[in-house]
Amino acid sequence: MTKLSDVCLSSCGATVVLATSCDERYPPENILDGKSETFWTTTGIFPQEFIIGFSGPAKINKLTVQSYLVRNLKIEKSISKDPVNFEKCAEKELENSEGQLQTEEFMLPGCQATYLRFIIESSFDQFVSIHRVMADGNMDNISSTA
Amino acid sequence: MVKLTAKCILAGDATVGKSTLAQLFRSDGAHFQKNYAMTVGVDIIMKTVHIPETNDSVELLIYDSSGKEIFYEIMEKLWEQPSILCLVYDVSNEQSFNSCAKWLQRVRARTLCSQLPGVLVGNKTDLVGRRTVEQKQAQEWAAQNELEYFETSAKEMENFEVPFRTLAKSFHRLYQERVEAIQSFV
Ligand SMILES: Nc1nc2c(ncn2[C@@H]2O[C@H](COP(=O)(O)OP(=O)(O)OP(=O)(O)O)[C@@H](O)[C@H]2O)c(=O)[nH]1
Ligand SMILES: [Mg+2]
């Protein structure tokens, strides 16, 4: 038995392996620092995306995404060693919430992934922000060296 | 330091000089297209604009669009989620000025954003004797529709950079405002 915890943290070895926007004041690493106050911003045209890589295969039950002004969000997963061969696992139209963060939960029972890809297809404004991604799950400790 | 990317819709009636302005801007004034070559659908022209007094820049993806109705159906799809708008008319062609309301409405219909920075450009000011749209009239209409107004002559290479640079600056300002707004409530 392993207990569930947030595996989407840089302190757990998670990293952003790709992001289509980068303002060095609001880098994509802010998504994985465990804080809602820090964020990553998109810097123009849509779609935009970012890919989170885990330190090994992860089992994920639930994802929670904190964002602002995102309209359509698609999530894909990969179980490959490299960020390729993504399969769609969720898609949602979010509600506009002017002046406060959007908190959206995605139930993904039995989902296994080494990478998660988040595609922001459309937005409620010219720029959106992603504050935090939380993943309730655990790491398969097969290849863990930490 | 940040590099923003803006989808700039360049729209207006046929032959008002949209492609000519875009090509001049792209080539820093080196290329004036004398003979008319109709744009088929949309041409995308890329140009990076540095924002003065910052280390930031805006990459403009200029969607140089045809003024011909037959291409409108295709263009409408390509215009989804625009960032900024450059609306052009010909100061010697009143019909092209009257069409601006239609083009503006069409582009605004493609976005949910509360703000779409835009400019109105009266081109061909070199055709002095043939002018039919007065500056004041155009300026008033632009102000009513929250557009900044500029006059250009692509032929004389006058003012052709200003509309694009202004749009890049507006987009950059919007980004700063949005980021500050987010920081104020997190
Ligand atoms: N006199 C004068 N002619 C111009 C000016 N700008 C463009 N032209 C001419 O106007 C004609 C049409 O220009 P284009 O830039 O192709 O027009 P357009 O708006 O792109 O037209 P479509 O692609 O069909 O929508 C060309 O022959 C240009 O040389 C100008 O400032 N003054
Ligand atoms: Mg053209």
TrEMBL record, chain A:
Q: Where in the cell is it found?
A: Cell projection, Cilium
Looking up InterPro entries in the UniProt record yields: FA58C, Galactose-bd-like_sf, IFT25
Q: Please provide, alphabetically and separated by semicolons, the GO molecular function terms listed in this UniProt record.
A: metal ion binding
Database matches in Pfam families:
F5_F8_type_C
Question: What's an example GO cellular component term for this entry?
Answer: cilium
Task: Report keywords, A-Z.
Answer: Calcium, Cell projection, Cilium, Metal-binding
Where do the F5/8 type C domain residues begin and end?
A: 19-124
* One of the GO BP terms on file: intraciliary transport
User: Subunit structure of this entry?
Assistant: Component of the IFT complex B, at least composed of IFT20, IFT22, IFT25, IFT27, IFT46, IFT52, TRAF3IP1/IFT54, IFT57, IFT74, IFT80, IFT81, and IFT88. Interacts with IFT27. Interacts with IFT88.
What's this chain's function? Component of the IFT complex B required for sonic hedgehog/SHH signaling. May mediate transport of SHH components: required for the export of SMO and PTCH1 receptors out of the cilium and the accumulation of GLI2 at the ciliary tip in response to activation of the SHH pathway, suggesting it is involved in the dynamic transport of SHH signaling molecules within the cilium. Not required for ciliary assembly. Its role in intraflagellar transport is mainly seen in tissues rich in ciliated cells such as kidney and testis. Essential for male fertility, spermiogenesis and sperm flagella formation.
* Similarity annotation: Belongs to the IFT25 family.
- This one is known as Intraflagellar transport protein 25 homolog
Automatic annotation (TrEMBL), chain B:
Entry annotated with the keyword Isomerase: no
Decide whether keyword GTP-binding is in the record. Answer: yes
Example GO molecular function: GTPase activity
Q: Keywords in alphabetical order, please.
A: Cell projection, Cilium, Flagellum, GTP-binding, Nucleotide-binding
Give the principal location in a single coarse category.
other
Compartments reported by the entry: Cell projection, Cilium, Flagellum
**Entry's Gene Ontology cellular component terms:** intraciliary transport particle; motile cilium
Q: Which PROSITE patterns match?
A: RAB, RAS
What's this protein's family per the entry?
Answer: Belongs to the small GTPase superfamily. Rab family.
Task: Please state what the protein is called.
Answer: Intraflagellar transport protein 27 homolog isoform X1
Q: Which organism is it from?
A: Microcaecilia unicolor
Organism lineage: Eukaryota, Metazoa, Chordata, Craniata, Vertebrata
